[in-house]
């Protein structure tokens, strides 16, 4: 059989980079869509990139944008993918209140543009293309049911979430109307050392490391009471792939089944370096949202049953691995005293020196 080809929108993002790694490991030829930027933004995939002049290259990048349907069609025709993963998005909920039109264009219309390109390609060539849509727990928004599962009604609370709900229904619609193998993943928050620096988890773990290194004195945050079901991104991209390997297309909640507040995240992150977050965290109303999603907790039973998918990293393990990675990034060995708590004496003296 032909080498399997996958096309990923959003390959430069957190999930795109982990998914590209997974697909390369599985023997796929991987194609990704990147946006032209004045400085390179391919940091997360540089370690797997191989110059296309090299005969061994199995990863290829194409310039395009989810707001540009013509280019999406051209790339699809050129790549002839067996699987398309639509991960590209203006994915920051707070920013979606500032830039609602652009968010909806990239998230909602972007999904429609990809679906339309696939529909025409499949119709013309008779070749089946499997499609994954990056749906989000944000679609559940205001609490209707606990825990949230595939049948829980949506109640989106941001332009981003409204756009994701549109993408969800179009994906389901294309499955029913055009017999497309199209799946919605309804993924709850998932994090990693590659998480964007303005999402709350990475903002915290990066701040912990910078405080320890004497590079930052305070951490400004918004609502500390919100609760999220946080998992590890590497586990979650595996679920995306599994969905497209099933006999029939379906929609799945991917979550850990546990929820924790921002305060609990702060507790573990700061305790990991023997500090008290209350000494460093300040409130800044600019990080509040006009409408907040207070509580998310997912029920992954269907994915466990049908995909045999399980999360492998605990909440505490996730926080610690993110702090450790950020400590390493500022040149501090996280395990230098052998108990995973860092060399506390070094940390303390670094902070004292920095703020003396
Ligand atoms: P990131 O924000 O890390 O990555 C987003 C990706 O989309 C980047 O590659 C970005 O490119 C690209 N992108 C942004 N705008 C456009 C556009 N107009 N055209 C083409 N590409 C664009 O997100 P994650 O990796 O965390 O998330 C992946 C997907 O999953 C997103 O759709 C997100 O909404 C969704 N999701 C994420 C969850 C999470 O907890 N991480 C949970 C549920 C859903 P560039 O690098 O150039 O900015
Ligand atoms: P979220 O993630 O909105 O859940 O969307 P984010 O980390 O931005 O916020 C989580 C919660 O933390 C609160 N919060 C802050 N958030 C940020 N970013 N910055 C702060 O300073 C801060 N202080 C408190 C927020 O109010 C919120 O309650 C993520 C994205 O990846 C989406 O793309 C994805 O769909 C969902 O997860 C599931």
UniProtKB/TrEMBL annotation:
Highest taxon listed in the record's lineage: Bacteria
Necessary cofactors: NADP(+)
One Pfam assignment: GDP_Man_Dehyd
Keywords: Lyase, NADP
Residue ranges annotated for the NAD(P)-binding domain, each copy included: 7-322
A GO MF label: GDP-mannose 4,6-dehydratase activity
UniProt cross-references to InterPro entries, sorted A to Z: GDP_Man_deHydtase (IPR006368), NAD(P)-bd_dom (IPR016040), NAD(P)-bd_dom_sf (IPR036291)
Protein family: Belongs to the NAD(P)-dependent epimerase/dehydratase family. GDP-mannose 4,6-dehydratase subfamily.
Function according to Swiss-Prot or TrEMBL: Catalyzes the conversion of GDP-D-mannose to GDP-4-dehydro-6-deoxy-D-mannose.
Annotated protein name in UniProt: GDP-mannose 4,6-dehydratase
């Amino acid at each position: 059989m032909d080498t399997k080809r996958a096309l990923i929108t959003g390959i430069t993002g957190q999930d795109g980079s982990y998914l590209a790694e997974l697909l390369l490991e599985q023997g796929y030829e991987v194609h990704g869509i990147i946006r032209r930027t004045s400085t390179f933004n391919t940091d997360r995939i540089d370690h797997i990139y191989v110059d296309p002049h090299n005969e061994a290259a199995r990863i290829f990048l194409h310039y395009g944008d989810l707001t540009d349907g013509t280019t999406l069609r051209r790339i699809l025709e050129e790549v002839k993918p067996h699987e398309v993963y639509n991960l590209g998005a203006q994915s920051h909920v707070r920013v979606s209140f500032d830039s609602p039109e652009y968010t909806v264009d990239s998230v909602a219309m972007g999904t429609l543009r990809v679906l339309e390109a696939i529909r025409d390609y499949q119709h013309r060539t008779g070749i089946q293309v499997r499609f994954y849509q990056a749906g989000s727990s944000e679609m559940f928004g205001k609490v209707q049911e606990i825990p949230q599962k595939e049948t829980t009604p949506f109640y989106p609370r941001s332009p981003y979430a409204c756009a994701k709900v549109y993408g969800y229904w179009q994906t389901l619609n294309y499955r029913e109307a055009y017999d497309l193998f199209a799946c919605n993943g309804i993924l709850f928050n998932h994090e990693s050392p590659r998480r964007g620096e303005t999402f709350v988890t990475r903002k915290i773990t990066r701040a912990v490391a910078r405080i320890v290194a004497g590079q930052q004195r305070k951490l400004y945050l918004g609502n500390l009471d919100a609760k999220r079901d946080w998992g590890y991104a590497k586990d979650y991209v595996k679920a995306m792939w599994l969905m497209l390997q099933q006999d029939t297309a379906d929609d799945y909640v991917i979550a850990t089944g546990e929820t924790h507040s921002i305060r609990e995240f702060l507790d573990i992150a700061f305790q990991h370096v023997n500090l008290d977050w209350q000494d460093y965290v300040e409130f800044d109303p600019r990080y509040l949202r006009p409408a907040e999603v207070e509580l998310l907790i997912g029920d992954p039973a269907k994915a466990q049953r049908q995909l045999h998918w399980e999360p492998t990293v605990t909440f505490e393990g996730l926080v610690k691995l993110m702090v450790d990675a950020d400590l390493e990034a500022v040149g501090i060995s996280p395990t230098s005293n052998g108990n995973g708590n860092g060399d506390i004496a070094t940390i303390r003296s670094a902070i004292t020196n920095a703020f003396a």
